[in-house]
Amino acid sequence: MLSLVDSMIGGHPARPCLVLSNDADAGGLKKARARGIPTAAVDHRPFGEDRAAFEAELLKPLQQAQPDIVCLAGFMRVLTGEFVSHFQGRMLNIHPSLLPKYKGLHTHARAIEAGDTEHGCTVHEVTAALDDGPILGQARVDVRPGDTPEDLAARVLTWEHKLYPAVLRRFSMGNTEPVLLP
Length: 182
Fold this sequence. Notes:
By secondary structure, this protein is α/β, with parallel strands linked by helices. The chain has one domain (2-181): Formyl transferase, N-terminal domain (Rossmann fold), CATH 3.40.50.170. 36% of the residues lie in helices and 18% in strands. It has six helices and seven strands; from the N terminus they run H-E-H-E-H-E-H-E-H-E-E-H-E. The chain has helices at 2-7, 27-34, 51-65, 81-85, 107-113, 149-172; strands at 19-21, 39-41, 70-72, 91-95, 118-125, 135-142, 179-181. The strands form two sheets. It has a five-stranded mixed β-sheet with strand order 3-4-5-6-7, covered by helices on one side. Strand 6 (135-142), helix 6 (149-172) and strand 7 (179-181) form a beta-alpha-beta unit. The protein is globular, with a radius of gyration of 16 Å.
């Protein structure tokens, strides 16, 4: 989130209008407020299994902010197709694998266990399907002998912080041609 926010300066065609979390104690909220960005939090826990009720509350601050683009960054809740439909073609996510490989969790461990020689991250448009949607960018890193999931995650994270801002800049100008790094 901070990489995205910090990239939206000068001639960047986008500006942050809201940082929203499902955790009122998320460190990113404090950092966003320090940068003068409006923030909101909607705790999912009181809603239990009622995802529709949680998403209805989550939608309220988004509708008030009226974003042109919604960027998911560290939001670890699966959103329903109903929620996603409000932002169809305008919602982006970053995922720590070279999609379509390794949708879901534990991507770094899965790449190592599979004996992959390369791994990376993907920015994609969000659709109703988990970790699916048109790919807007990918960054690749080598999987090194002896890598742990933590080692690999750290190298991938470095590229996530470069890839997502690059994709957002292009996407906000209407360019959906994939960004490929390095």
